[in-house]
Design a protein that fits this description.
One of its GO terms (molecular function) is lyase activity. The protein is mainly beta. It has 3 helices and 29 strands. Helix content is about 10%, strand content about 40%. The radius of gyration is 22 Å and the shape is globular.
């Protein structure tokens, strides 16, 4: 048994080394035979991932992006896809928040041993210089940085050792009902990035989540009421001083849902997944803040994605698709998709960029378009463990790149990994 355990440990490190060395192999780049697009694996480390789909991961010059692996926080060039380690993980957990839109500093949280405290820091991607912005209690969670890099926003959930733990055998749906009905005291707060001062701007026993600062207005914040989507009015905005709280979408029909909200690139609109009723009618909705009005385009079941994301072109979106077990129940929607809006049209044109039929959607790809709209960046377990990939939007094909079925290639890599780890 000890021998087998030693083999497994050796195999794990061997596979990690294989990933780190993959930049010199053909396994890092191929042409998807189904879509004709160039696909690149960006991360060379094992267990690489991206921040949540709403987080900005790109530097202001559009030349680089960040991602996280088991080794730490990484910077990748969007021209060469060469990567470098910005912040190594030591004894504390590292959580990447997002990239500042002015300075390009990368903001992140790290936990103290035991988790009693979190530190909010940022690193300069050019010099590597690290700045400590604040130390906070361990139950404070930072999730967004505002447009001029003066404030961070987060959620505080009050700890209670007497609170009844979640039911051990409950389904995911049952756990959602338990949590939303628990009425746990929570607060939405900001942190002054210069002084470290904390300001509570909204307190509630509703389940608060996903604060997102506007990419343009440093005083505008969006957040959500979490829970079963057909029971909650989810999407809200509030000013950074706590004033002007407003509901973005009010449900008016049974089983209507609105969620996975995100900002337009110019901050003038909030986009979201709207279903009325759930799993039957699908829309990509846009709420224009200045006019307090909503537009929506119709999606077919096959066009629906778990997450959508905006680009610097207001008529261009990206989506991370879905498998047959997601709400749309489509067997042909596993992929990264490009969505184009045409003026005056209520429909949307969709094009698949890469086949993800070999991807396990329990890991959501969280796709986004690069600032120049040349690449869609996403995370995937195509090769058996999480990694970060990019797929080219157009069909420009470099010389010497092999054409492969992504699904077949992925299953071959998964089988090789199982063979290494399990000694099949």
């Amino acid at each position: 048994m000890c021998y087998r355990l030693a083999r497994i440990i050796f195999a794990f490190f061997f596979f990690s080394f294989e990933l780190q060395a993959a930049g010199a192999t053909a396994n890092n780049s191929w042409i998807d035979s189904q879509t004709g697009r160039h696909v690149i694996r960006i991360s060379n480390e094992a267990f690489a991932t991206l921040p949540y789909f709403t987080a900005n991961i790109f530097t202001p010059d559009g030349g680089s992006m960040v991602y996280v692996s088991g080794r730490g926080l990484h910077l990748a060039s969007l021209e060469t896809f060469r990567t470098s380690l910005l912040v190594p993980v030591r004894n504390d957990e590292l959580h990447c928040i997002e990239v500042g839109r002015v300075t390009g500093r990368v903001f992140y949280l790290s936990k103290s041993p035991g988790g009693s405290e979190v530190a909010l820091r940022s690193v300069d991607p050019r010099s590597g210089a690290v700045v400590l912005h604040a130390r906070l209690p361990g139950h404070y969670r930072i999730e967004s940085i505002n447009a001029d890099e003066t404030l961070a926003a987060g959620i505080r959930e009050e700890p209670d050792p007497q609170r009844k733990p979640p039911s051990p055998n409950a389904t995911k749906g049952e756990l959602l009902y338990e949590r939303v009905n628990a009425k746990i005291p929570m607060a939405l707060f900001t942190v002054d990035l210069k002084s470290g001062a904390v300001r509570v701007i909204h307190e509630s026993t509703d389940w608060l989540s996903h604060p997102q600062f506007s990419p343009a207005d440093p005083e505008m914040l969006m957040y959500s009421h979490e829970g079963p989507w057909h029971q909650v009015d989810r999407i809200w905005t509030i000013r950074a001083d706590g004033s002007g709280r407003r509901l973005v979408h009010h449900r008016t029909a049974p089983m209507e849902i609105a969620g996975h909200e995100f900002w337009s690139a110019n901050g003038r609109a909030i986009h979201y997944d709207w279903q009325r009723p759930k799993a039957e009618s699908f829309y990509l909705a846009s709420f224009r803040l200045a006019e307090s009005s909503r537009d929506a385009v119709v999606l077919t079941r096959q066009q629906w994605s778990i997450h959508f994301n905006a680009s610097t072109d207001p008529a261009l979106f990206v989506g991370d698709g879905a498998d047959k077990d997601q709400v749309a129940r489509s067997a042909s929607s596993a992929g990264i998709f490009l969505y184009r809006l045409r003026a005056g049209d209520t429909q949307i044109f969709t094009e698949k960029l890469v086949d993800l039929s070999a991807h396990d959607y329990r890991l959501e790809p969280n796709a986004r378009l690069t600032p120049d709209r040349q690449w869609a960046v996403f995370r995937s377990n195509l090769f058996g463990i999480p990694a970060v990939f990019a797929v080219r939007v157009d069909k420009k094909i470099p010389e010497g790149i092999a054409v492969r079925s992504t699904a077949t290639f992925a299953r071959e890599m998964q089988a090789e990994r199982r063979k290494i780890l399990m000694m099949e």
